[in-house]
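Continuing the series of single-chain predictions for the mutant panel. This is the parent chain; the variants come on the following pages.
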Amino acid sequence: MPGAMQSTEPVKAPDGVMRAGELQYLLLSRRLRAFRSGATLALVPSIACILLLFFAFRESAPFTLLLGWVLLQLSQLGTFAILDRRMAQDAAELSHLQTYWRRIMVLQMIGSAIWMVVFPFLAIYASGQSAATLGVVGTAVLAGVLLVHRTAPRAGAFHIYALTPSLVATTYMLVGWDGLPIMALCVLFAAVLMIAIRVQERHFVKAAKAEIEFNEAAETVTLLLADYEEQSSEWLWTAGTRGNLRDPGAGLLLALGKSREEVEGKPLLDLFQPGPERDLLARHLAEKSAFRDLVLKLEIGDELRYWRLSARPREDGRLSGVARDVTAETLVEERVAFMAHYDNLTGLANRHLFNERLR
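Parent structure:
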């Protein structure tokens, strides 16, 4: 049960992996990551079990054979550690992952076979405390299949099929047929472990398929949004958790007359001129709250423009929305409002505004 460094980066197939093999690549990548995680957790208990048996039987069992078994187990762990360090999983092609997976599965089966042999061998020399130690270690090693082999069903099945007869034989060698209830319990426990492995495998494959379907749906939505942005006079925008622009669309970049590097990560508020509307936008960004039809002023190329913004919060803490240039409409509205209160020729307040002020 070897250990390895665990990567937390999301699984994504390299460009060379065809879409038809995406599920296979995702499954194998997840298996490797889960296996490495379980092996890391099991490393210390595995070494502890090996050393515990060594010290428990160092005086009763043949020392040379016992030491040879310990060195063989440690060599198996070390071989896996070396292979694991040489494997760059995130950049590997599917064929390389398959080769690596086969190698570590063979190593795991070798490790299971070594454990299978050692329990009946040590039962010959077990008595009292050493017999109890043998039983505890045997149970721990058998149950470890759920930790290390939870995403490797074939290696897990081999581990169970190898250790169950070994532990049954060990029990018989220690107490004879008086240990029949223990033997039956061991077989029952092994059956439950097999069922657990199969259930975990079904859930594992189902989760991988669901992830691919989700990614495909997300890609479809992205394409539809990109098409909408190309055909529409509105531009999509996204603000991160700190109010910075993220993944600006082509329409937004064109409207601003800037490159992606100039816009990506820039505070959304910095685009707009100070005013009550900008303060309201700042509050919505801070509170991650939805808003509609908020008109703000900004300067593009020494020209004053008016944009209408609407947005709603996302589950990841961001705000996503649309922006639309409403400069023409806003100027017309301002002109109409001016004409309603001022004389068009003199620019002086008319009677309507005068009466309103008197009220």
